[in-house]
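Pipeline run #58 for the internal structure catalog. This entry was flagged by the ingest filter as a single-chain record with no existing model, so it goes straight to prediction. Upstream metadata was stripped on purpose; only the residue string is passed forward. Reviewer on rotation: M.T. Logging verbosity set to normal.
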Amino acid sequence: MSDIAKVDKKTYDYLMEEPPKRWARSCSPRRRYDMLTTNIIESMNSVLLEARELPILRMMDFIQVKLQRWFYERRSEVEGTFYDASCWVDEKLKKKIDLAFTLNVFPVDSWRSRVEEEGTSVLVDLNKRTCDCFQFQFEELPCIHAIAAIEKRNIKKSNFCSHWYLKESWLKIYERQIHPVGYTGSWIVPESVKSQIVKPPDFKVPPGRRQKKRHIPATESSKITFKCGRCRRIGHNRTTCIYSPAVHLFSRKHRE
C-alpha cells in the first residue's frame, strides 16, 4: 500500500475507504477462500443457455439430467482417484516441489525447522501448521518452505492439508444421487395439491427483443478475441493484417 501511495495518492485513498479486513486476507477476521467468485446463479445460467427456450417442464428435465450426469461422473472420478487429497491439490503441491528442493532446511526439533530462501530465513512449525510467510496458514496447504521441511522428514504432504482438501471431503460432496422423477402416471399426488390452482405470475413483458446474454460490467475484461481470416493469427482482422502476402486495399501495410 505504501508503494501504491507513492505512485497515485488518489488510488490509495480510494482503496482505504474500506477497511483492509474486507479486502485483504491477511487482515480478515474469518477464513477466506483463495479467490472470490461471482454468484453460483451466473454459472448455472451459462449452463442453461440451451434450455432457456424450452417449456418449463422440459427445462426442469434438462436440469435433472444434467445434475444426475455431473454427480455420477464426479463421484466416479473421486472413487477412482488414488491420491489422499484431491487432484487439484496434488497438482498444486507438485508445482511447489521443484522450488522446495532449492531451499536449505535446518531442523530445530522433530516438528520445527528453519528454512533459508535467497538470504531470508523463516521458521516452519509442522505441528501447528504455521510458517513465517503466512501462506501455510492462509491456504491451509503446505507452502514451499513447509514442503521442504516435510521432504526432509519423508512425511506425506497430505497429512498437513486441511480436511476440506482431502479425498473424503471431496467424495462427501457427491455421495448423494440425483434420482429421475419417473413416469408422471405413477406419481402419487395428494388431494391438497391437486386442488390448488396455480396462476401465472403477474409479469409485464417489456417491449423490445429479449436479452439473452448478460451485460459485462466495466470491472470485467471482455473475452472477445479477433482472429485474422488471412494469417489465422489472433489480435487483428483481415483489414489490419500486415502478415499476409496478399495486401488488402484498406490494410495498414497498403496505406504505408
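catalog note: DSSP finds ten helices and four strands in the chain.
catalog note: The chain has a mean pLDDT of 83.
status: ready for reviewer M.T.
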